[in-house]
Design a protein that fits this description.
Layout lengths: L6 E3 L4 H11 L3 E4 L5 H6 L7 E4 L9 E4 L2 E5 L4 H5 L2 H6 L1 H9 L3 H6 L2 H7 L5 H7 L3 E7 L2 E6 H4 E3 L2 E2 L5 E9 L5 E9 L6 E11 L5 E9 L6 E2 L1 H7 L6 H14 L10 H23 L10
Parallel strand pairs: 1-3, 2-3
Antiparallel strand pairs: 4-5, 5-10, 6-7, 6-10, 8-9, 11-12, 12-13, 13-14
The structure holds flavin-adenine dinucleotide.
């Protein structure tokens, strides 16, 4: 199907893009990688009268290390993250997430900023980055503001973004070694959205206890969540089978999935527990310096 007719703009600066958003209001949509917007336009789920292509704005691309943070431009493509040696070494959870998102074509075009702004409940970046200390920088006409990712996404397909705002940058704190992370996704077909996914990031104390732990759940509710009760059980204690057996039911209880063509509520809750164990064990192996391949279930 063809999209409805629209006007196309390609601003050269963030300010120009915001000006266009102000002028066209609800009728305008930002175009980043187009991997969600264009299919929605073709299916006429979205019919914006005005498309603002931000791909020519300098300064929104790529990523860089800045002290103890990874700064990711809104237009950074999934593939750039998947291929990065720096990310693989410092944030392997992100390598797992990027390499399991969609297929090669989508990964080459789709952007991290677009994925967060779209806030698909089954999206990989919203779920994966929630296990890390992630903040989102938003540009508006009054300047820029930075919000934690857990506040940025407020519901399914809904974020804090106002009508005259856009995402410019995402910042992720580099975890302090010894540390490890993993993102495990279960999909029905290769390249599909998740039936369920779990991200685990841990930092270890000198005695081997979990000094810091974060567990994120994807596709297990209207928006990604953290399994806080399970984190509380794990924090300060040394990982063991008994400890994981204590934490797993708490992870399952946190999951609030929907019955749909990808599976029943019971099935997805069960998956949440299984994926948690796999992600935790890969994260722990990585924290101990053991090589774990990028995770594909
Ligand atoms: C076949 C297929 C399979 C896919 N499988 C997966 C998958 O397994 N996992 C997964 O996570 N995703 C999947 N996707 C979606 C893909 O990851 C998209 O790239 C991503 O969801 C959106 O990023 P985008 O850059 O393409 O955004 P676009 O499609 O350009 O935009 C999406 C939405 O975000 C808004 N937006 C984009 N950038 C900004 C910005 N900087 N500021 C404010 N608003 C902005 C747009 O206005 C639009 O509303 C799949 C897509 C396809 C076509």
């Amino acid at each position: 199907m063809y999209p409805a007719e629209f006007e196309y703009f390609a601003p050269g600066t963030v300010d120009e893009a915001l000006e266009l958003l102000a002028r066209h209001g609800d009728e305008a949509k930002i175009l980043a990688g187009g991997q969600s917007l264009i299919p929605m336009m073709k299916l006429r789920i979205a019919s914006p009268r005005c498309v603002i292509d931000v791909n020519r704005i300098p300064g929104l691309t790529g990523f860089r290390q800045d002290g103890d943070r990874l700064i990711i431009g809104a237009l950074c493509r999934h593939a750039e993250i998947a291929q990065s040696a720096l990310v693989r070494e410092r944030l392997p959870l992100m390598t797992d997430a990027a390499s399991q998102t969609a297929d090669v074509q989508v990964r080459n075009r789709g952007t991290v900023g677009g994925s967060l702004a779209h806030a698909d409940p089954a999206g990989d970046w919203p779920a994966a980055l929630l296990a890390l200390e992630t903040s989102v920088t938003i540009a508006g006409r009054e300047g820029r503001r930075t919000v934690p990712l857990q506040e940025f996404i407020v519901d399914a397909y809904t974020t804090q973004l106002g009508p005259i705002e856009m995402v410019t940058e995402i910042a992720v704190r580099l975890p302090t070694p010894p540390c490890g992370g993993a993102y495990v996704k279960f999909e029905k077909r290769a390249g599909d959205f998740a039936v369920a996914s779990v991200g685990v990031q841990i930092e270890l104390a000198a005695g081997g206890q979990c000094r810091a732990v974060a567990i994120s759940l994807g596709a297990l509710g209207a928006m990604p969540t953290r399994a806080r009760a399970a984190e509380d059980v794990l924090r300060g204690r040394a990982p063991s089978s008994a400890l994981l057996a204590e934490a797993e039911p708490l992870v399952r209880a946190e999951a609030q999935p929907f019955d749909d063509t990808r599976g029943s509520v019971e099935y997805k809750r069960h998956l949440a527990g299984v994926l948690f164990r796999r992600a935790f064990s890969a994260a722990l192996d990585r924290a101990h310096g053991r090589d774990v391949q990028t995770l594909h279930v």
